[in-house]
User: Fold these one by one.
Assistant:
Number 1:
Amino acid sequence: MPTGVHLRDARQQLFDAAERVLLRAGPNGLTSRAVTEEAACAKGVLHRHFADFDAFLAELVLDRAAQLDTQARALRETAGTGTVADNLTGALTALFGPVPVAIIPLITFRDELRARLRQARPGGGMAVLAEVTAAVSAYLADERALGRVAAGADIDSLTLSLVGGGHLLFADRDPGPPATASVRKLVTAVLAGVVRPEHH
């Protein structure tokens, strides 16, 4: 890589390379050497822009977690339209895409990475799951305000059930992500009794 490449371009190139390595080789295969080789740049490029590899990984996770904002906004925009179950089924499938699901074990197994994420932002230790949780919780609150989710519904418990169950469904992507019917079955079971049948 030419030394004159703009910082932002170098960072994005390294992030994209890390994402490809993570998807192909998993968390154990994600090393600074693998990233720089994938990005076709000298190892020094990574260390010129980041204090160390954990600093790089923390920035990668925060960057990818921030990208979930678009999907979170899209979910909130569905409030009051379609059915609650269909909206959540589609949202969980998008929010638990291949990259977020690959990042979660990376965070889980790297103590230093979790510590840096917590320093970077409150609740950042599990940045991806925090974004998914916030999105689902805000959507359910919107639907409750619209009367499509029962007024007495415990949004926190519903969110925990949907996000935890969704994560378990999507965590094992071999041979692939779960079928839409499986995700909808989870959502329907969690929402039983809090969503009127016509909105289910």
Note: The radius of gyration is 19 Å.
Number 2:
Amino acid sequence: MIKKHRAFLKWAGGKYKLVDELTKHLPSGKRLVEPFVGAGSVFLNTDYDEYLLCDINQDLINLYEVVKNQPDKYITAAKAMFVEQMNCKQAYYRVRAEFNDTDDPFLRSVYFLYMNRHGFNGLCRYNRKGGFNVPFGSYKKPYFPEKELWYFSEKSQNATFKCVSYQQAFAMATAGDVIYCDPPYAPLSSTASFTTYAGNGFSLDDQALLARHSRHIAHKQNIPVVISNHDIPLTRELYHGASHATVQVQRNISQKGSSRTKVDEIIALYDHLYQDEEY
């Protein structure tokens, strides 16, 4: 059995549980392009020659660049934050305030991992002024992901990181690439809301535009695109013309680990066989 690799970040909607099924639907190619890289579980568990990993969250991309290029320095500095005296509200809110006040890329990368592991549910959320505002999580002993950091740094030597929109990521794709999209998911119900990862929401219009971009690049440039999302009537309609697979994924619906439910997710593939006059 092939060993699966976990991301070093906790991440809402992370693909670790889905990666075995996802990889069955990813076409072969020289380079994998991810416009919504998130925690990078798909990157960590695939074997392409090269990767173009993009996200609109500048802190996330900065962190990945630091881990790629300065793993020794980074791991030493980050590990020093994972001590008992730093696992309290006072320390957490002090670090959060310092994070929001500094522009230093290395310091922000160290604080980002600390807040990711000590903050509530591993959320990544910003206020309208761009300030990180996730509350303290009250965990007994937050895990320091040292071996995951080393693996990420090693594998990322074949990766290029870009802080760009998904449209810009699509524009960078060339022949021989495969695109995998893991956008903020469409809401399961009309009352559900999107999690804002980078200060910008992902609206239903964005969902439709992403589907259109995917159809267009598959048909016009012969670059296959795979998209994950909730399997609901809306996404079935949006991804018309694509081949569809459905998988069940267990999701936590509250902070209590016992409160879990299984939801259907869709894996849509657009490839060169896609034919539609409307793109």
Note: The mean pLDDT is 90.
Number 3:
Amino acid sequence: MRRRVPAGLDRAVPAFVQPMIGRRAVLATGVGVALAGCTGTPPTPESKRFDPKDWDSVRAQFPLDPGLAHFAAFVLAAHPAPVRAAIDRHRAALDADTSAVLHGAVDHEQRARTAAAGYLGADPGEVALTDSTTMGMGLLCAGLKLKPGQDIVTTEHDFFGSHEALRLLSERTGAPVRRARLYDDPAAANEGDIVARLRAAVGPRTRLVVITWVHSSTGVRLPVKTIAGMLAELNAARDPADRALLAVDGVHGFAAVDTTVTDLGCDFLTAGTHKWLFGPRGTGLLWSRAWAAVAPVIPSFSAGDTPGSLATPGGYHSFEHRWAVTEAFEFHQAIGRDRIAARIREQATRLKDGLAAIRNVRLVTPRDPDLSAGLVMCALPTVSPVEAVGRLRADHKIVASVTPYAEPFLRFGPGIVTTPGQVDQVIKAVAAFG
């Protein structure tokens, strides 16, 4: 049975829910052929002493197949050694005596919330623990309090999860949702135009503005701080209950860009911790300084009456993963968030410069490092993105991905598990497509 795609959402529906893409179609592509040859999980290397100042040591903490260049590791993280150890420790304890371990669940959760807050530059009571970016956006949109006549503004470039959450909010409240187009050519995007176009879409009754920090469709990084400043000017003459709140899907900026929520200036930030942070799979967070505008959606099992605790969905979770978020933040902080951001920026710039120099390759992502982060997209003249991903893996041992949108691009994500030398390999391999 095909899933019905709501009208107007076809531009940002991921591949796994596109009506025309299924298991049979995928296996018919180069990606399916390449992946079908994988018969098992690569062996985990012996754990080595961790030196956070040595990039080779950092990469050695991951069990990633050393025979591949992993430029799609940001999609769903592999776990570094400290995170694996924490997961194993919590799992073993739960298996041995679940009842006893659950008595300490509150402490484990608070440790995770405190670690997240320390990274965000926030108060632990402002942090709700979730399973993903999409869950955070869903909780926000399902619980947002709106007055009659208020509306919502988002953009054409946001992910399916945000568009769908806003569609459901509109159905629940009757509030109209408008989408702004922030740029026509992503490679030529500029801050002034982006802010002006969004400003033009915000009306006198706009209550929520939803944007994505780094677009997974193009790699464009929005100037969130400048956008927050623009909204602050509009809000100066409004009553608190009428101010336009800024919500950010931050998943591809979170742990890839060195900043805090105070620096960003937004009111809400949702992010999965299982992407650029390389946290436990199935974990995330929703932070806010404006919790009074949102009602809890799912009953909470968290102790205390802080807004973040009350907004944290209750029920039993994969606790061994949720509790190991603490070690993910500690691992990241040990390396240095500034060093990680610089490492990503260095490799992304090197990759963009190399791709831009290849004849007939169209670089989609802005070359300006202030308007991009770790994601780098390009388009090839004669090879589809799906075919390119398959051939890169099969012929060059390079793992890339395809943007899950109506207009797909070839996508790379250099980070702490890749090297400048591997970036050069990517450039050479793409050039070979002709």
Note: The CA atoms of residues 84 and 407 lie 36 Å apart.
